[in-house]
Amino acid sequence: MKEPWVRVVKRDEISLARKIWVRVAAILISLLVCAFFIYAVTRSDPADVYRSLVDGAVGSSRRSWSTIRDTMILLAVSLAVTPAFKMRFWNIGGEGQILAGGIITAAFMRYCGDSMPTPLLFLCMIVSSCLAGLIWAVIPGIFKAHWNTNETLFTLMMNYIAIQITAFFSIVWEAKKGSGTIGIINQKTKSGWISTSFLSGLFGKFNYSLNLIIVLALMIFMYIYLKYTKHGYEIAIVGESENTARYAGINVKKVILRTVALSGAICGFTGFLLVSGSSHTISTSTAGGRGFTAIIVSWLSKFNPFMMLLISFFLVFMGNGATQIASEFKLNESASEVIEGIILFFIIGSEFFVNYKLVFSHSNKKEEAA
User: Fold this and answer.
1) Please, what sign has the CA dihedral across residues 99, 102, 104, 110?
2) By C-alpha distance, which of 152, 154, 141, 155 is closest to 253?
């Protein structure tokens, strides 16, 4: 009997340095493949391609702050889904929970923006957006906790319901009859907008320093919550084994509902940040796929909030750069998505080599007959 030429073996241990090198190598290979793709399509110098990539992400003050803004939003969603994922509750409904928070924020901005005092307006938007996201997540959480339904499908279907509700309000609130969009909310008065002039003396005009401070504070909170609190300990135990958690006296149903509520509330709060602090409108594309990208960020970071910051920045940097490449080299929008897809493919694929290794057989030996 011949030995297999190559075998896949799970690694017992791998050093941090080697993990970093594997991931760096994956990124470099992905950039090389992207360069070949662009060259095949445009016959352009790969060096020009990468210059365009950097320019698209941080080529100006406005672009730099846009990259920081998008990083903070992706980080916030990643932090939101992490407690549920660590508990092995597969919350695929981040998109819907973001839209739920965004819809209620847009409603307050439209109906109360010019009549309600600013502090009270922001308080109502924050509380209601968190509550909306919480409700959107707790519904599948209740079914999971009491009847053990499939939370992956349930939360995914909730996304489509939220998208259709958003589409409904886009028509009800449309700025111009037949347009299907509501346009910029309170464009003249900017009521309900998170200020971009905060710390303008330090960061300049059009900065998103408030978003930055809020999400970084949320990151620190999540790190402490998961690592040093009783709730974080219970999440880890339930994620390892529900039976072990019950044996330890942990109320599993309570932990599931509490954790899913926290996850949904932060997603809803992210919807507030998007509508009030970024786009100043609401549409079916407001979440922009971040609920799904956040899953990748959470897994690649191994649920470490500080690693999520780095991974979020890298993905946004590459995404914004890819968009600039497509624009500068006169490619359609799908080209930037292809580039992003190539990069993500290699980054995710590198995790295989972090967790497993290939063992090659140097010789094929036949087993001797007994």
Assistant:
1) negative
2) 141
Coil vs helix vs strand at 227: helix
The contacts of residue 84 (CB under 8 Å, 6+ apart) are 90, 91, 137, 259, 260, 263
3-state secondary structure of 115: coil
**Please, are residues 263 and 137 in contact by the beta-carbon 8 Å criterion?**
yes
Radius of gyration of the chain (CA): 23
- In the chain, the N- to C-terminal Cα span, in Å, equals 13
Tell me the pLDDT tens digit for each residue of 298-317.
Answer: 998 989 999 999 999 988 99
pLDDT digits (tens, 9 = 90+) for 197-233: 888 777 777 788 999 999 999 999 999 999 999 999 9
Fold that domain 61-324 belongs to in CATH: ABC transporter involved in vitamin B12 uptake, BtuC (1.10.3470)
Q: Left, alpha or beta for 89 (phi > 0: left; psi -120 to 50: alpha)?
A: beta
| Strands of 44-144, DSSP E | none
Handedness of CA 280, 282, 288, 290 (dihedral sign): positive
Residue ranges covered by each domain of the chain = 1-44+329-359, 61-324
* 3, 364 contact by CB (below 8 A): yes
b/e map 21-48, b = 16+ CB within 10 Å: ebbeebbeebbeebbebbeeebeeeeee
Dist CA 191 CA 170 (whole Å): 19
Give backbone dihedrals phi and psi of 250, rounded to 5 degrees, phi first.
-85, 135
Distance CA 348, CA 326 (A): 23
* Two structure tokens written together for 83: 């407690």
What is the sign of the dihedral through the CA atoms of 345, 347, 352 and 358? Answer: positive
pTM, 2 dp: 0.89
With a pLDDT cut of 90, the percent of the chain lying above it is 60
Q: How confident is the model at residue 363 (pLDDT cuts 50, 70, 90)?
A: very low
pLDDT reading at 92 higher than 90 = yes
Per DSSP, 177 falls in state T
CB half-sphere exposure, 79, CA atoms < 13 A: 29
Beta bridge partners of 358: 8
